[in-house]
Design a protein that fits this description.
Layout: H1 2-6, H2 10-16, H3 35-50, H4 53-65, H5 74-78
């Protein structure tokens, strides 16, 4: 559930769910009060049925440690190399946010 919210922006979560409460019948219990809780629980349950948690740990570690530029500024790391590079970013990506290398 926590992993899933890192892939969605605040704006998309607010647009999809806002603060919509679920319709309850009966007394208050410690259950999902908001629509987003039910959605995240459903997505989380399906995720653990399809993936081994240890695989996810290894994938996360590999992503965290991958450095195509080997510590150099990206343009410098590519200078003098005969290759084509396509970099695609998404404004809503929190883990790897888009930045303009000319401005950084």
């Amino acid at each position: 559930m926590v992993g899933h919210i890192t892939y969605m922006s605040d704006a998309s979560m607010a647009e999809k769910f806002g603060r919509q409460k679920k319709t309850h019948t009966g007394a208050n219990k410690f259950t999902a009060d908001f629509e987003v809780e039910g959605y995240l629980r459903y997505r989380g349950d399906n995720f653990v049925k399809r993936f081994d948690a240890n695989s996810y740990l290894y994938i996360t570690k590999a992503m965290d440690n991958f450095d195509a530029s080997q510590g150099k500024p990206f343009q410098e790391a590519l200078r003098g190399r005969d290759l084509n590079v396509l970099v695609i970013g998404f404004k809503s990506d929190w883990l790897y946010p888009c930045t303009n290398p000319r401005k950084s």
